[in-house]
Every structure is written in structure tokens, then in C-alpha cells.
Specification:
homodimer, alpha/beta, Stationary-phase Survival Protein Sure Homolog, Chain: A
Chain lengths: 255, 255
Amino acid sequence: MSKRPLILITNDDSIYAKGIKSLVDVVKELGDVLVVSPQDPQSGMGHAITIHEPLRLKPSNQFKDIEAYTCSGTPVDCVKLAIYEVLKTRPTLLVSGINHGSNAATNILYSGTMSAAVEGAIENIPSIGFSLLDFDTDADFDAAKHYAKIICQNVLKHGLPKGTCLNVNIPKGKLDTLKGIKICRQGKAFWEDAFEKRTDPFGGDYYWLTGDFAVTDRGEDTDMFALENKYVSVVPTQFDMTAHHLISTLNEWDI
Amino acid sequence: MSKRPLILITNDDSIYAKGIKSLVDVVKELGDVLVVSPQDPQSGMGHAITIHEPLRLKPSNQFKDIEAYTCSGTPVDCVKLAIYEVLKTRPTLLVSGINHGSNAATNILYSGTMSAAVEGAIENIPSIGFSLLDFDTDADFDAAKHYAKIICQNVLKHGLPKGTCLNVNIPKGKLDTLKGIKICRQGKAFWEDAFEKRTDPFGGDYYWLTGDFAVTDRGEDTDMFALENKYVSVVPTQFDMTAHHLISTLNEWDI
């Protein structure tokens, strides 16, 4: 039996994305690797799970000398199948990504990449989601790989408290243009959505979701601020969504 | 122009579910109502949005004298389309549900019903998700309607702080078996998943996601505890997922 750490990799851009290949390259030096990744892109799937349809799981030769599977479902489905069906145990570390595009601030809620890491946290597995601020399918992941390795090494060394994971975002650019790592809180922002309305060849209307990301929180301790200033942002993340500060107020209501 | 509150209704069980009809019945007495609801069931879709496919929005006559639309996408898509395309403004109140089945504890993360309410909170709309602890398509919503009305009236009267919403779960049972409302925090639990493996007629394997909900947090201030004791649970909810307590620890790491 190997005593190397067992590292589970998933993502939301599919097993064919450059970002997951970059992450495999980083962590295969740190432990034994299993990949369970979506067969098709699953961006924006958030914490979705597949209830109404069966799931398919197929072996993949995508990575040389690495055990890998594709899954027909969401990133969270991938994590569940990996733990309960493939491994039958919990890995030492779960890493998700490297996502093509930012998952900073409120984007965490919509992100399949980060939802996979949060699912890891729910399962008490030290988990990290990595995202590069570059949507390009051929994005340059060199700087992201450098920081991903440092952060994985530290999580393997220090662990993470139960029920927590890390949301790591890396600015676009060469390594020598980045200033280092900042520990941050999740910034507040929202998508000011705009729908582009079109008409299909048969006269029916349809809409494409578009929009601008409106940052409403200028705090210098936010991930958005760190990224704008060329720092890698690391947000420690948990899944208790209780607005604890509101409990006493609600107890004053006459209900 | 009407001075009645404008109330947006959505859900995740589709516009044809008994639960949303029950919610329409409750809130049509309290304001002017718009329904934008999924055309197909969207349970377990979490905070998913539709990026890779166009969205369809169609008028529906499902509710007498109520403006209603079906949407081809997720509950969060419904909220975005309602605000940015149908209303072109923010409603006074957003209500989601009444869900057929519990969204207590960690279920909030997987829940389309609650993700619609959280999307409302992101948009600074006072928002409430309602769920009945009964998966039956013909469940008895009488007690749920009673409490939904009280809670909607109170939110219309008091408002909710920016960036917050309510997660309301109602035990199964007749009104006189319920003990009232408890303000709670989100309990901690996880799905101990089991996959049922089957083989299709063509020899291919597939999996159904099943599992048991394992409650790991016995706190008497949790929603799970309240529901087990026949109270309606109200969890004030927000969307900052930062593990604030972990920031100082991570700043001690040598990264």
C-alpha cells in the first residue's frame, strides 16, 4: 500500500479542458491521483446534483498513467461518485479546477468548480478550488500552476478544519507580474443581468443570459480587491449560510 | 398604478406542482402576483444557471387571473428572467416554493427552491423559500399555507436586511399538530450517499443517486431539531460563505 496522499481531482470545464490537465501536472508530484471529471462542460451548475436521470461513469485514458473517469453529471455528482463508488473511502485531498474564468466574490454560488470543493468540505475532506481569471480555452496556466502547488503543499502539511475549503483565484498574467498570495474574505458583487432576445428560424423567441459583474463592496480585504491588485486570492470557505446576526431580530417579531 | 406589493413567485418543482399553487393562493391576497416558474421539475439544481443553452419563456394560463410564465431553465434563471426581462424592476417580495420535501440543514445548498430565494437576496429583494417535509405530489399543504401567510405578512411589514432571505421548513401534519415557529440556525448534516448500480438493456452500467441524510449536529438551536419537535423552522440566510474564523490561521501559514 502506498503511503503517498490520495488526491481526487475534478473540475467543471470537463476532462478535456487545459485547466484540469494543468492541475493533474501539479498534484501528480504530490501524491497518487484519481480524476473523476464531467464528460461535458458544466460551468454555472453550482451545487446541482442529478436526481431525475441516471449517471454514467466511464474510464478515460485522458491522462498518461493516471486513473481517470468521466461522469455524465455535474461536478458535485463527480465528487459523490468518486467517494462512494470509485474509491469507497475519502481521499486525503480534493482539488477542483483549474477553472477557466474567475470564481471570486458571489461567483462562488454559481460555480461548479467551487461547489465540488464545498461538497468536499461537507464530506470533511480538505478541499481546494482553483480558478484562473482567463476564460480562454488555451489560457496560460503557468503562474496558476506555481501557486496551486504551493497551496496544495500547505494544505497537505497543515490540513484544514472540518467543514472548510479554500477558494483560490489567480490573476491572468505571467508569474513575475503577480505579487503573491493574500488571504481574503468573499467580496460582495452581483450580476447585473441582461438577456439578449433572439428569434429562432421558426418564429419562436429565446434568450441568452449575459450581463456585467457589478462589485458593490470595495473592501481592501476582499478577493476582488486582491485580484485587481495582482495578488492571488485565497478565501477560506464554509457552508453554514445562516445569517446569525439576524436571529435575535427575528425573535422580536410577533410570529 | 397599484400600490399593492408586487410579489414574484417561483419554485423548483415546476409550475404544475401543487406546492406553487398553494403559494399563489396564499400571496394573491397580499399583493399583485407574477409567477415565473420552471416548465419541468428542477429539484436538486442548486444555484445552477443556464449558460450554454438559450432560455425559453412562455406565457402560462396555469393560474386564474394571475400573470404567469414558464421558463425552460433553472429556478435561478427564473428569478433573473423575471427581474431583468419580465418586470424590468425588482419586486417587493420574492417567494419560492412551497417545495415538496425538506430543504433544512445542508439541503439548502442542493435546493433549487432556496437558491431562487438566495438569488433574490443577492438582488436585495426580501425573499423567502418555503418547503414542506412531504415529497408526495398530492401532499397536504394546509398547515404550510397557514404559516406561509404569517411569515409573508411579517416580511412585508418588517422587511429583511439587505443580502438576507429566509429558509422556512414546515413539518408534515395537520395544523393542530404543529407547535409554532422557531428561529433557528442551519443544522449540519450530510448525505451518506449510496449509488444503485444497474445495467441497461444494451449492457452499459448506470447509477442512481440515493442515500441517507446523516445529521451530525444535535444542537437544539438547529432547524433539524425544531422540525423533529414539530416546530416550523425559520433560518435567516445569507450568501457570504467566508470561513471568517479561519482567516487568521491561514495568515500564519508560510505562503
